[in-house]
Design brief:
The protein has about 400 residues and is an alpha+beta fold. It has three domains: about 110 residues, Orthogonal Bundle (Butyryl-Coa Dehydrogenase, subunit A, domain 1), CATH 1.10.540.10; about 110 residues, Butyryl-CoA Dehydrogenase, subunit A, domain 2; about 160 residues, Butyryl-CoA Dehydrogenase, subunit A, domain 3 (Up-down Bundle), CATH 1.20.140. It is built from twelve helices and ten strands. It is globular and about 80 Å long. Its cofactor is FAD.
Length: about 400
């Protein structure tokens, strides 16, 4: 089964994505080295197909197809290139704050261009000195009349070197209160925006995630996203409503790739005169990975479906990212046990790379420890804030989301 809670139009989209993978992505694999991380060719091809703007309402030039559609595209691409899928989801994440809290003028100016694939967006929150601790952000924005002057560095920014605009969250007041941060839309070619040299990394081949520095970067107040002091809301809502499901989709693709590798290996390799898959111990290990894949699909598609229907689903989104990433790591570790020495050589098997890619899914949008803490708080009724999924319910698409039809 390809997916759950999908309709014919979703499966048509899946078929289109698989054709694109076969025709455009596979011939370019592997995506290795720094230059592959800087090459915007494939991500721009996907953007021109409307896949970055799947959740942008039709009123702003988007397809308005929702989060299930977004999940399908990201998940399918992650099966063959987790790095490219990570790039795609980073650009989807970049438009979330604009959708949720941007002014009408900003939406009219930028969302149609994102929807049509003319430009790519990313969100610029984390820093070397704060990581994902939002209130620890040290990059500053100082107001001077109708202009804001941004200074400071941002690190580990998804799609950093291919994005045309950045949703930048900066400190606009001292302290650690709820109103100390503000978000801004900053054009990548604006004076004062600098991209630092991209470093090589061990995971997510082809994914651009580097550093951006702002030196006296002057931004008009009209580029502000949300009210002054709403920066944490921009960052948190983007992470909860987009980031967690997106990362769960990438992890799901990694999981399925692991299963494919293991099944192929255990069918081809023989031991004591029969294929490995026919030995009880190995068959049980493969069964464990299959169970992880099946449960991960159920989690991801349910969360996306609930989000599209405007349901309160913050905990489902949280659980999706947390558990699928953990299942991916556990399955890749088990796959290395099954393949043995074969797993140690990239020319023999991609399992070691998939293990690194799976680990890369764990820290973003909340480490496993933070996610467990937040789930525990929800279970105990200690969460005071209104859920993000209820506050920013997805626009309904009556042909797909409003009824259980097969259109």
């Amino acid at each position: 089964m390809d997916g759950y809670l999908t309709r014919r139009r979703h499966e048509q989209l899946r078929a289109q994505v698989r054709s694109f993978i076969a025709e455009e992505i596979r011939p370019r694999l592997p995506l290795e080295g720094v230059q592959a991380r800087l090459d915007p060719t494939l991500i721009r091809m996907m953007a021109r197909r409307g896949w970055v703007g799947l959740t942008i309402p039709r009123a702003y030039g988007g397809r308005g197809e929702g989060h299930v559609a977004k999940l399908i595209v990201t998940h399918e691409i992650a099966r063959v290139s987790p790095g490219l899928a990570a790039e795609l989801q980073a650009c989807q994440l970049g438009l979330a704050g604009l959708l949720n809290l941007g002014s009408e003028s900003l939406k009219r100016a930028w969302l149609p261009r994102i929807a049509h694939g003319e430009i790519l967006a990313t969100i610029t929150v984390t820093g070397r000195d704060s990581g994902s601790h939002i209130k620890g952000i040290t990059a500053t924005a100082r107001r001077n009349g109708d202009v804001w002057i941004i200074n400071g560095g941002k690190a580990w920014i998804g799609a950093s070197h291919v994005a045309d605009i950045h949703c930048v969250v900066a400190r606009t007041s001292e302290g650690r209160g709820d109103d100390c941060l503000t978000a801004f839309l900053v054009e990548a070619d604006r004076e004062g925006v600098h991209l630092l040299p991209h470093q090589e990394s061990v995971a997510l081949e082809g994914f651009s995630f580097g550093e951006v520095r702002f030196d006296d970067c002057r931004i008009p107040d009209g580029n502000r996203i949300g009210d002054v002091g709403q920066g944490e809301e921009v960052a948190s809502s983007s992470s909860v409503l987009y980031g967690r499901l997106n990362l769960g989709a990438v992890a799901l693709g990694i999981l399925e790739a692991i299963l494919d590798v293991v099944v192929e290996h255990t069918r081809k390799r023989t031991l004591y005169g029969k294929p490995l898959i026919e030995h009880a111990v190995v068959n049980g290990q493969v069964g464990e990975i299959e169970a992880n894949v099946t449960s991960a699909r159920m989690l991801a598609y349910l969360a996306a479906h609930l989000l599209d229907r405007g349901k309160d689903c913050d905990r489902e989104l949280l659980t999706t990212k947390y558990k699928i990433a953990e299942k991916a790591v556990a399955s890749a570790t088990l796959a290395m046990e099954i393949l043995g020495a074969y797993s140690l050589f990239p020319a023999e098997s991609p399992v070691a790379q998939l293990l690194l890619d799976a680990h890369a899914m764990r820290p973003p949008a909340g480490t496993p420890g933070i996610q467990r803490l937040q789930l525990g708080q929800q279970a105990a009724g200690l969460t005071q804030r209104e859920s993000w999924s209820r506050r920013f319910a997805s626009p309904r698409h009556p042909g797909v989301l409003g009824r259980f039809s097969d259109d």
